[in-house]
Amino acid sequence: MLGSTHGTLTSDLRARVVACGETARDAVVHDTATAAVADGDRDVSGRPLHLAVPDLDRFFRPRSVAVVGASDAEGRPNTGITRQLIAWSERVGATLHPVHPVRESVFGLRCVPGVGELPEAVDLAVLLVADPLPVVAELADAKIPFAVAFASGYAETGEAGAEAQRRLGDAARRAGVRLLGPNTNLNAFEEFRDDLDGPAIALITQSGHQGRPVFALQELGIRLSHWAPTGNEADLETADFLAYLAERPEVGSIACYVEGLKDGRSFLLAADRAARRGVPVVAVKVGRTETGARTAASHTGKLTGADQVVDAAMRQYGVIRVDGLDELQDTAALLARARRPLADGVAVYSISGGTGAHFADLATSAGLRLPRLSEGKRRELHQWIPEYLQVANPIDNGGHPVGDHRGRKIIDAILADPEVGVLICPITGPFPPMSDRLARDLVAAAETTDKLVCVVWGSPVGTEAAYRETLLGSSRVATFRTFGNCVGAVRAWLAHHRFVRDYRSPFDEAPRTPSPSCRKARALTESTPPGQQLSEHAAKQLLRAYGIRVPREQLVTSAAAAVRAAAQVGYPVVLKASGAQLAHKTELGLVKVGLTSASQVRDAYREIMDIIRYEGVELDGVLVCQMIGHGLETMVGITRDPLFGPTVTVGLGGVLVEVLQDTAVRVPPFGEGQARAMLDELRGRALFDGVRGGPPLDVDALVEVVLRVQRMALELDGELAELDVNPLVVLERGQGAVALDALAVCR
After folding, report:
1. Does the pLDDT value for residue 432 go beyond 50?
2. Is 728 exposed, middle or buried (0-12, 13-18, 19+ CB in 10 A)?
3. Which residues neighbour 593 within 8 Å (Cβ) at sequence distance 6 or greater?
4. pLDDT tens track for 232-249
5. Helix (H), strand (E), coil (C) string for 226-251
6. What pLDDT, in 10s, does the model give residues 273-287?
7. In whole angstroms, what is the distance from residue 324 CA to residue 336 CA?
């Protein structure tokens, strides 16, 4: 027998065997170790640039399985779990070994009293015990690579439970065992249909019940290949499964239900792997609102993260975020099965002008392009459609042509247009026999084209033969039940293929070694106590170190020196108090602008010093600054996110950043393309092009500042907690951008 000297499970196991159900409540601690990363290659901040992809083949398709705590006693939850595991093992061709300290057999299968008595090497151990920690240590002796822990009572119960979970995760890592759970369920061991063809959806969920709608797609003929219920993620996490599934040749798309992320960097590395391979990832991510974030945290114990940062990070790596489970179903199904687009034009074809107008309105509002069909194509369509009906796109056939030979000719003619890559036919309700024939013609046409054919079947009944048999029976037609889901899925499909076509992994370009700018900047940050703010003068020195332009200025400590400095800087000038304790100088009257003479400078200096004495704050001096002319006030900043680390923000500056909150965020590293995309996301983007006859602004200079600030965020991650460059004035094209003020806080 294998490992007979390693002991058996006796009375301790009897105490630990528990009733575990499929829907055990999830919980997790977010500060346990994260997904394994590849050794060696790290960026300048010390973060990994590659993820070590776990080989989960033996988890999903084990040769041999041990069920610790197996039972066949009627009425016990473990009995139902054991029964399901036996059936699953038979389907995947695995040998199952029940482990129980007192039973000789379970469901007719010979039991062994402990893991050390297993008769052969085992790939996967399923732990149906109240405290899996002692068993995990025994798995190491038996060299079992994977385990699943169903037990609850961990982070969801408070700090004691969180500490127990940390111990469990640490034990698994010491033992070399990859652990799923605790607080997971049986979803990985479901019965998947093996009679379906085509690319499959792989499913990752942090709540088993939330994955049920996607799993049920099999009943509509859509193939599923894997289901990973990650549970508490004490060891194996969403990123591990995402990276693994992106490598599987049968996987056409990955659908995720995410309440929180264990580690933001690991998730992005996994998403990067999927993006490199062109595998679409569609995710519902809870936490858009404060209520949702709070509820998710209480359910899983994970950090949901600032939603704007999560949203930007997912978009940055091509993860398609949706809100509803129905959207997750429809979008993942389309992305898994549809071929690459041949064109991005969408043609809307209907039997009703009202239906076509309604759908076209929704599609155009969502950013889909509905090309106007050429005059020649319109003449061709009017061979079969009455002249008084509109066929420029949307195409209204009036109804009758779908009932005879004309219907198929119209569909073929639309699909033959080189500007059309997608044909969408909304059928708001059944009207047999015409709707039956229309469905058959659409399916037949889809079989003869490489272009995407979509149908929206709007009937709430869903039992019609045209829907159940004709449309769902086709693997080439994408069928939806709502206009909104169709529009969203098609938009995501087109966007995914544009993204993949242009994708360049930011991790390939991430800096590995510090720049000379970093060494200059550290001289400032290392001399500043943790948590302390730099003075404006010091913060601008930080910007100068990274080549970010600031006004000509001098720091002075007397009125006479201020007058001399103003003459050297050049009138008009601005006087500003500079000190580590000053954050909002304007509100205190510590900024004097538009000074044009020595007397004004002298008076302004004295006024500033009077206020300083009254406020009782320390100064390192008064800045005499060049006054910058007209431009657009923007802001660029660095903040730290608890999930993703340093983030870079750009937006409209001055007071507008507080009033309008028109900002865009990215997680470093990123390149010029993402920096420009940040600007395109701003609601005020048109301001950069010049308004009311004004000149266009120097967008290139702003992009360069964003990239330099990003470098600062990476290189000074250990020293810099926050940076706020506001206002950063963007001047006319070719004249650059100038940082008028900056606030920096050290870690």
Report:
1. yes
2. buried
3. 572, 574, 627
4. 999 999 999 999 999 999
5. EEEECCCCCCCCHHHHHHHHCCCCCE
6. 999 999 999 999 987
7. 18
Edge to edge, the sheet with strand 345-350 lists 395-396, 345-350, 420-427, 452-457, 477-480
Do the beta carbons of residue 355 and residue 431 sit within 8 Å? no
Rg (CA), the chain: 32
Question: Which residues partner with 650 through β-bridges?
Answer: 636, 664
Distance of CA 449 to the CA centre of its chain: 33
CA–CA gap between residue 602 and residue 595 (Å, rounded): 10
Q: Which of 281, 288, 284 is nearest to 319 (CA)?
A: 281
Give Cα separations from 240 to 247, 540, 647 (angstroms): 11, 42, 23
Interval 697-723: pLDDT, tens: 999 999 999 999 999 999 999 899 999
Q: Say which residue the tokens 């790939």 belong to.
A: 123
Alpha carbon 114 to its chain's center: 42
Q: Tell me 412's DSSP state.
A: H
**Do residues 579 and 573 lie in contact, with contact meaning Cβ atoms separated by under 8 Å?**
no
CB 232 within 8 Å of CB 262: no
Query: Is residue 370 within 8 Å of residue 359, measured between CB atoms?
Result: no
In the structure encoding, which two tokens stand for residue 167, read together?
């111990």
DSSP code string of 251-319: EEEEEEEES-BS-HHHHHHHHHHHHHTT--EEEEE--SSHHHHHHHHHHH--B---HHHHHHHHHHTTE
- pLDDT tens column, 366-376: 999 999 999 99
| Number of other CB atoms surrounding residue 14 within 10 Å | 13
For residues 228 and 12, what is the distance between their CA atoms, to the nearest angstrom? 30
